[in-house]
């Protein structure tokens, strides 16, 4: 099998596999994106508060 035929065969197999994929709906995608944004925001606030608290404590200790 020559390289061109291998490439054509590969593309055909990829297309067949992509046809088997269960794609999310637009609403599911938006919902999942919002969950990621909210959880990331909460984690950012939590880590920021911990960092600020530890900085204040250490500045008092090492004053």
Shape: elongated
**How many separate helices?**
2
Query: Main sheet, how many strands, which sense, barrel?
Result: none
Gyration radius (Cα, Å) is 25 Å
Query: Topology as H/E string?
Result: HH
Question: What share of residues are in beta strands?
Answer: under 5%
| Average pLDDT for all residues | 95
Give the total of beta strands: 0
Structural class: mainly alpha
Which parts are unreliable, with pLDDT below 50 for 5 consecutive residues or more?
A: none
How does this structure look, described?
The protein is elongated. The longest helix has about 35 residues. Helix content is about 85%, strand content about 0%. It has a domain of about 40 residues. The chain has about 60 residues and is mostly helical. It contains 2 helices and no strands.
In short:
The chain has helices at residues 3-20, 26-61. It has 63 residues and is mostly helical.
Topology:
Blueprint: H1 3-20, H2 26-61
Supply database-style keywords.
63 residues, mainly alpha
């Amino acid at each position: 099998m020559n390289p061109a035929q291998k490439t054509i065969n590969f593309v055909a197999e990829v297309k067949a596999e992509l046809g088997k994929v269960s794609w999310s709906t637009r609403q599911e995608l938006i919902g999942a994106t919002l969950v990621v944004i909210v959880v990331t925001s909460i984690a950012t606030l939590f880590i920021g508060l911990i960092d600020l608290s530890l900085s204040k404590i250490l500045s008092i200790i090492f004053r």
